[in-house]
TrEMBL record:
PANTHER family: FAMILY HYDROLASE, PUTATIVE (AFU_ORTHOLOGUE AFUA_2G08700)-RELATED, PEROXYUREIDOACRYLATE/UREIDOACRYLATE AMIDOHYDROLASE-RELATED. Keywords: Hydrolase. This is Isochorismatase family protein. InterPro entries: Isochorismatase-like_dom, Isochorismatase-like_hydrls, Isochorismatase-like_sf. It holds the Pfam family Isochorismatase. It comes from Deinococcus radiophilus.
Amino acid sequence: MTRPDRRIYRQTDDGGVQLASSADRWTLHDDHVNFLPHVDPSRLLRFDAELMPFVDDPSHQALVIIDMQNDFLSPGGWTDASGLDYQKCREAIPGVQRALSIARERGLWVIWVYWHNRADLRNLGAPTLYSFKHRPDQVGIGEELEHGPVLTEGSWGAQMTDELQPLMQEDDIHIEKVRMNGFFGTHLDQVLRTQGIETLLFAGVNIDQCVTSTMEETYFCDYNVVLLEDAAATSSPEFCQQAVVFNARNCWGFTMTTQQLASAQPYCPDSQ
């Protein structure tokens, strides 16, 4: 006979529907999703997210901050030199600061994911180089700007923006990447598994490129995906950000603001 916790879509005793099985199962209810139905409810918080509130244990969460680097956010950086609006990327900074404050208060892991390319560019193939250099006169990854080579390890452009550097701590996790996707060719997945992290709260830039490709891979690997809408931004047209928010809610997981993150309440299943 199949154990009850292995029966997908079974009706649970609390009126929900089981998704997946064993320790990885969720319980779907009319008004929320419980990521950890097998865990003592006193450890759980309820988060008002879209499309559905969810219940989770903060000790299994991590804040993932993507590409908050000078080349994307600072005057004289790559985005600025490319004629794009770097100020739009800077709109993510206050939200990232708020998210960091909440993460520190709750003891969450903080994971910084960022471009650190080799100076000789041997880690990048032609398709990746072309995606950032569509014309011969356009400055691409690794080429020189006023402050040094673009997104190259040890360069000014690859450093975190000044507003965030004082908020970094010694035991934060650093993931150096060489593609938009923060999982590709990195040890991000190993870090998450060894530290027992199951839910990733996403912030950073550009929301429609490096943030979204990393969120998709997170979803493909069966981690829980949460986009912090006011802690992510892009220099792309507004519809690009809107599409990511739509898909984050309807495909990859959930979205919420940093205010909703801060306002999470203890989970009281009897009153739900």
